[in-house]
Model the fold of this input.
Amino acid sequence: MLYTIKLHPEITIKTKPVRQLMTKSLAQNTRNVLRRIHPDVTVRNDWDSILVRTPDATEDRINEAIEEALECIPGIAFYNAVVDFPLGDFDDMVRDTLSVWREDLAGKTFCVRVKRSGHHDFSSVDAERYVGGGLNKFTDAAGVRLKHPEVEVKLEIKRNRVYVVKQRRRGMGGYPLGTQETVLSLVSGGFDSTVAAYQMLRRGVKSHFLFFNLGGAAHENGVKEVIYYLWKKFGSSHKVNFVSVPFEGVVEEILSKVEDRYMGVVLKRMMMRAAEQVATYQRIPALVTGEAIAQVSSQTLPNLSHIDDVTDSLVIRPLIVTDKPEIIDIARNIGTATFAERMPEYCGVISRKPNAACKRVDVEAAETDFDWAVLEQAVEAAKTEAIDEMTWVSQDDLEADLDAPADSDRPVTVIDVRHPTEAEVSPLELAGQEVLQIPFYSLNRRFGGLDPDVHYLLYCDKGVMSKLHALHLKDAGFDNVGVYHRD
Done:
């Protein structure tokens, strides 16, 4: 099978040296991706297009996999599945086109479109008229219709070859990956950050990924799953890293020492400080986030300005003026929505009464008592993995039984892990059942000091934090923890 790849229009208007560089990069990226599907695929640069050829005996499923991959390589406007022939006279051209299109024209109106490059003793219109007349004569077509035909028969004549197009499919457009600078994309696994990362990949920007872990192994596993999917589908021509920073200690410090209305902005400022350190260490010049104006209180213009104050790195926000429904539509189109929909929201980090227009002096004052050693420890504990070599938590561990064992002789105690202000507004009162108050941000540090002969059930309003922390504690080796389900 032969495919002709057409360049994204923005590539074709570049100066000759830039266009050559981008076309060369696109050819190499295509080669990197397709040779994992079939080692004998050949990719050849042909200036205004790229030719991809698979061996003649290639199975249909391999060709289908190649076609799916071509749709997801940045820089491709569209590609054609073609049958190529030596250029002969017009009668040869009719015969060659009939071999491809004869059956598909039965009962349908059609027209012939010819694009030509090179020096020939005929025009494109001459070829269209002759081939169109031949197809009309030798098929059961309903006739030629130049405007709004049911079928367009496309031919490309390049020098001494004729390419009869069987099928055309759209690509993702954009620039070839790696032709722009490298960035560090901050990802949470939700709709916004994955779409923002996709937009950067589409623009030819090689992206490493940074995740701030607030929920242990279960949370990290979910984010790794969606980011691996994103990279595998749209960016696998290049090797990149996944960096995970354990941020639970930072969250604990914020929730215990920062006034409630400033927590969201302070958390983002801490993330930016950590991200800048990671980026500097890896020599990455820019950061990418999925923030959009006014989507939440920390994303107003004043608060975004305060967040950016703490870093000298360029902060890129591809979605800054994009509506949420549009972001979700993009996520559905690229296949990340199903991951985002089941990604747990870490609700306990959100301020109950956030300030949408913080003053800089107040935000800086709110950080006065913060222990900066906690942030440094989090950055030092960051784990970097090649994205194609990431370690995964087994599904058996993630789906561990989190209920109290029915046949256990252990006494059971419920731990309310909500923020103290939430527990104060709506206290958990259980008749005949002991309830401990241990905020989620202190749980991991304090759990080891509890009685190992007691089975502890964690509780929060939505059941999200309680499950994440129970799984995290199980991953740490504790077998006396589960989740309390309130009827």
Summary: DSSP finds 18 helices and 18 strands in the chain. The mean pLDDT is 90. The longest helix spans residues 16-34. Residues 438 and 446 are 8 Å apart (CA to CA).
